[in-house]
Write a structure and sequence with these properties.
351 residues; Heat Shock Protein 90; binds adenosine-5'-triphosphate; five-stranded mixed β-sheet; alpha+beta; 6 helices; binds magnesium ion
Length: 351
Amino acid sequence: MSSETGETGTAFNLFDAEERVLASATELEHRLADADPGIRQGVAALTEAYSRSVREQRRLVKVSDRLQHQLATLNQELGRRRAEAEEALDRLKEAQETLVQAEKLASLGALVGGVAHEINTPVGIALSCASHLADATSDLQRLFAADDIGIDDFERFLATAADTSRLIMANCERAADLIGSFKQVAVDRTSSERRRFDLAGSIAETLTSLTPRLRQEGHKVEIVCPPGIDVDGYPGALSQILVNLAMNSVTHGYDPGQAGIVRITAALTEDDMVRLVYSDDGKGIPEEHRNRIFDPFFTTRRGSGGTGLGLHIVYNLATGPLQGSLSLDNLPAQAGTRFTLIFPRQIARAP
Ligand SMILES: Nc1ncnc2c1ncn2[C@@H]1O[C@H](COP(=O)(O)OP(=O)(O)OP(=O)(O)O)[C@@H](O)[C@H]1O
Ligand SMILES: [Mg+2]
């Protein structure tokens, strides 16, 4: 702004000087009234040329002023647009956070609904067995009180008691298992132990603990991980992820008697992240299931032991304590299953 005033000021000084020069030229022309016509014409032509150049100069100054003004307006407009864009970005970030929160709430809602639904079955069965047992017991008590108890009655009661108590126990165990899994869903990052550990060692250790189960089915395990990757994080969470993925391969990947290969490849990326690729060469996951496998309670094994919480827990561990990401790679049908887990070698300290 100040340079603009400065330049206009200079222009005005210049205009004054030019006016003065033009005035003295006119005066000179008067004084040369009696001079040689050739000289007078020459001076008149010079004055005319000078005043033309002055006019042209003033026109240019005006154009330059207009351009400067336009530039200032454009700059202002640019500033305004930039502020608008920044504001829009802030709003977008806010919206994104709200969405993430909403998503979390929605998945929590689905989880709570699912918990109620899942627990309902075993608890319901246990309850009806218990009431059946109670009925049978009071029948027996009545017969006993009437001194009318026969050996058949007693044997029937024993059979009922044995059956119902077996069912009650089995269903209570199922309910307890479910509660155990639900507890894992709410992964508490402070409860799992954080420490530095060797990546290759930790992977090998976890897989060794699974060897009996894998060997039983004839599966092979291949681990490719360079030694000396020193991770600062939660080895328990990583191990839980690998156990779940491996158990899934065994349970869902192969038909009974069919042996396969489970591969784990881990390496450090350029930006100090651990990239772990887990794969099996089993049946793979049908395309229509791929975007549902991380949902709580999605299972293709309902009724034969599957709760559908395994991969949900795995996802929560990967994105929670490990501060990373987990994705199912899109392989062609029947080409096995592959997950990619990426997490920082050194996880950020809680603020
Ligand atoms: N390696 C795999 N090969 C083929 N299908 C798989 C594999 N891993 C997961 N799936 C599919 O994804 C579904 C969800 O897996 P998830 O671990 O969440 O549940 P689940 O194993 O059925 O039950 P849970 O783990 O709670 O006992 C499985 O039911 C199965 O259909
Ligand atoms: Mg599972």
